[in-house]
Amino acid sequence: MLLLFAGFAKAQVLRGVITDSATHKPLYPVTVVNLDTRESAYSDEKGNYSIAVRPGNHVAYTYIGYKPQQRIIRYVLGDMQINVQMQGVNYQLDEFTVRPGYTPYQIDSLQRRSTYQRPLALPHASPFNSPISAIAQLFAPTTKQTFRFQKSYAKWESQLFIDSRYSPELVTQLTGLTGDSLGNFMNATPMPYDYARTATELEIKMWIRYNYKQWLKNGAKAVYEDTAANKKQ
Length: 233
Prior knowledge:
alpha/beta; single chain; 233 residues; Immunoglobulin-like
């Protein structure tokens, strides 16, 4: 009954404020991703965010220099609020050594893999080696939950890599967009993972400029006027 409800439940809006756990200052722009729908959003200058969710969805919060967090939406009764306090990362970790030349994304990725080392290490049993063990593993509740996490983690890591190359800071620098206009543009023009993986820095910038022009042509007149007014100030 719960699964049936989760499958047909109407999407609601999850809202909240994201702050630094030590200073309690708002964090901007934190990437907020619904790992199940792949929808993403960004916190604004005051740390506010909003994103559509359904029961059972996994929502991830990431910001360079801070430990990633994840929330599971157990139920949704109307719009709900989850405030998130993010903790700064200390890269003096015993599990690995940070080498010179690593990008912030690579450092954070190493820290995430270290944090979730145990669930990520669980292998899938091969039906060719032991059919009975494979079936037992498939239906074990804890194993099923771990495999779901591994799948969500892979999506999460892919989205974080895209964010490291297609960042709000870069888009603002190239287009002048900020706040809701920035979020609307980036949500309307998601960058494919394969392109983010293979494109050069120049190609990334050309891709952003091209899609920005197309976005304006497709009906973003009001956003354009707001952006032009901000540039004059």
